[in-house]
Amino acid sequence: MRVVIAGGHGKIARHLERLLAGTGDEAVGIIRNVEQAPALRDLSAEPVVLDLESAAGDEVADVLKGADVAVFAAGAGPGSGAARKETVDFGAARLFADGAERAGVRRFIQIGSIGVDRPPRPGADEVFATYLRAKKAAEDDLRARDLDWTILRPGSLTDEPAIGEVHLADTVDYGQVPREDVAAVLIALFEEPRSFRRTLELVTGNTPIDEAITRL
């Protein structure tokens, strides 16, 4: 498979690229900074320098042509202000989905976040509240599209080694999950029709990933 990943230098994306190299599949990582390209090549991924905050739709579609799966794993990241939550977590997600439609890529997986359905707590930081609104808007935009989409909402992300056992369902109790396990679940979902047009939540659990997928 050819898998195009927005946010190609992110932590989840780099786990995903490494796993794809191990399966003989082709990973293409979209990055903003050319200095990140060597890190992707070290993972046998193809880097493409493209700023999804300013790119034209045709540019995004060109990168996605011939892809089997599009994965949106980009985010403004810690330390960014409210404006970039809007332009990346919502705007870039929408642009990437537009590109998938133009390129004829039906399979689309978007990394979301548990909790976006709930309003921010009173007194919550405004930047975080903007982030939640942007992620929710990106989900709503994707649900309205004629794509074989899945929204995967992991819990609190950690850099611990993969456990290989998860709880994956429409709704789960809040918890943690290693980024490496998130990447493994993404691959398991690529060709799983039971996950099409569904929003799934993911935390560490007691079920091996393959079994968790079959229970969907």
Automatic annotation (TrEMBL):
CDD domains per the UniProt record, alphabetical: SDR_a5 (cd05243)
Entries under Pfam families matching the protein: NAD_binding_10
Start and end residues of each NAD(P)-binding domain: 7-193
Membrane-traversing stretches: none
Protein name: SDR family oxidoreductase
